[in-house]
């Protein structure tokens, strides 16, 4: 099973965050993060939306409960030796190294150049590209994750077609397009 670091920019977005965690729950991949990644996405939610601490802390606790062992301390050697375009992102790569992840799921691909990640056997992918690959290689866990995610949405609940439109609106356009072939299962 692939191991993927979920960057703060991805966890920051509630709908994408929820979709990816349901897909992970269904067994499509193993999610990874660190305390620094948690701190970053929570700080960003407070700054941008004024989210109170209580629901953010609850979301963090639920993530830790649902995926015990997903929280890794960044590799200290990587923290001191790696130079990225945005030095604030070194901890993300260091978390990937510590967890032996294959991919960093991020909206900031340019912050993670291939020439730096390649030798570490890492790649950076947007959430949409990250989900498209497993749909093409082994669709059932992604389909099940989508089904679980849709079932969790109560306010408002979504019919299958509306749900796939909802995913497309979350910048998961290609994922939604591919899932339409299995719409009856979602």
What characteristics describe this protein?
Rossmann fold; 58% helix; four-stranded parallel beta sheet; globular; 2 domains
Biggest β-sheet strands, sense, barrel: 4 strands, parallel
**In terms of per-residue confidence, which ranges show pLDDT below 50 for 5 or more consecutive residues?**
none
Residue fraction in strands: 5-15%
Overall pLDDT, averaged? 95
Side-by-side strand order of the widest sheet: 2-1-3-4
- Number of DSSP E strands: 4
SS content category: alpha/beta
| Domain count | 2
CATH names the topology of the largest domain as Rossmann fold
The CATH architecture term of the largest domain is 3-Layer(aba) Sandwich
The tally of helices reads 10
Helix content: 55-70%
- The CATH class assignment of the largest domain is Alpha Beta
Topology order in helix (H) and strand (E) letters = EHHEHHHHEHEHHH
- Separation of the first and last Cα atoms: 22 Å
CATH superfamily of the largest domain: 5'-nuclease
Radius of gyration: 16 Å
Describe the structure concisely for a colleague.
The protein has helices at 8-11, 14-25, 35-49, 53-66, 76-81, 90-99, 114-117, 127-152, 160-169, 173-179; strands spanning 3-6, 30-32, 103-105, 123-125. By secondary structure, the chain is α/β, with parallel strands linked by helices. It has a 4-stranded parallel β-sheet, with helices on both faces.
Protein topology:
Blueprint lengths: L2 E4 L1 H4 L2 H12 L4 E3 L2 H15 L3 H14 L9 H6 L8 H10 L3 E3 L8 H4 L5 E3 L1 H26 L7 H10 L3 H7 L7
Helix pairs in contact: 2-8, 3-4, 8-10, 9-10
């Amino acid at each position: 099973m692939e191991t993927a670091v979920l960057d703060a920019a991805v966890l920051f977005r509630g709908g994408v965050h929820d979709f990816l965690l349901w897909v992970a729950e269904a067994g499509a991949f193993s999610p990874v993060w660190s305390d620094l990644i948690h701190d970053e996405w929570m700080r960003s939610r407070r700054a941008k939306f004024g989210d109170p601490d209580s629901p953010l802390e609850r979301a963090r606790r639920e993530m830790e409960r649902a995926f015990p062992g997903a929280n890794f301390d960044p590799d200290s050697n990587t923290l001191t030796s790696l130079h990225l375009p945005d030095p604030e992102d070194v901890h993300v790569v260091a978390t990937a190294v510590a967890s032996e992840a294959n991919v960093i799921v991020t909206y900031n691909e340019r912050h993670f150049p291939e020439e730096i990640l390649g030798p570490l056997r890492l790649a950076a992918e947007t959430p949409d590209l990250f989900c498209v690959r497993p749909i093409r290689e082994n669709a059932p866990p992604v389909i099940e994750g989508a089904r679980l995610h849709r079932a969790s949405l109560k306010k408002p609940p979504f019919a299958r077609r509306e749900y796939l439109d909802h995913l497309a609106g979350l910048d998961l356009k290609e994922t939604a397009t591919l899932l339409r072939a299995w719409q009856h299962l979602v």
